Amino acid sequence: MANIIPTKGNLLALKRSLSLATLGYEMMDRKRNILIREMMGLIDRANEIQGRIDATFSAAYAALQAANITLGNCEELAKSVPLDESLQIRFRSVMGVEIPRVYMVERPPAMLGFAFTNSMLDEAILHFEKVKLLTRELTEVEISIYRLAYAVKKTQKRANALQNIIIPDFKQNLAFITDALEEKDREEFVRMKVIKRKK
Question: Is 148 exposed, middle or buried (0-12, 13-18, 19+ CB in 10 A)?
Answer without folding.
Answer: buried
